[in-house]
Amino acid sequence: MVSLLAQHNYTLDAYCVSPPAVLHSANNITGTPTVIGKRGKLVAPPRSSAHSLLAVLPSNAPNSSALSILRSTAAGHFRDWSVLWETPSGCGWEPLFDRYRLDQDGILSLFLVNGTNVQVVDFELVDV
Question: Per its UniProt entry, which superkingdom is the organism in (predicted)?
């Protein structure tokens, strides 16, 4: 279970693991990565009882700012991908995450840029 802890909005002035092609998602998730575009991140939660792997994937569809977080487990041989969370907008560039906050607090803190807007979205990873 992933629960959204906080979302902060700011304004500024100035080798690939592919999910299955049949995964049902509102975003453009395919088994074929694009040649260019936003790169996702693989995250291994340190306190995961299921030894999970999370894929933070931005959509590479033209003009899309969608973002999905997928989960797979060691028990499923990392073939059992499921959608944990997704949003249809808000991630215009490559997502970043705070690995120190993940290791120390068990919080997945995402840094998302969309045009001149910057968001920090925190997820508490419980039973992931």
Answer: Eukaryota
Cα(44)–Cα(103) distance, integer angstroms: 10
Stated pTM of the model: 0.77
H/E segment holding residue 59: none
In the chain, where the domains are located: 2-14+16-125
pLDDT digits (tens, 9 = 90+) for 67-116: 999 999 999 999 899 999 999 999 989 999 999 999 999 999 999 998 88
Torsion sign, CA atoms 25, 28, 34, 39: negative
How far is Cα 94 from Cα 50, in angstroms, rounded to an integer? 27
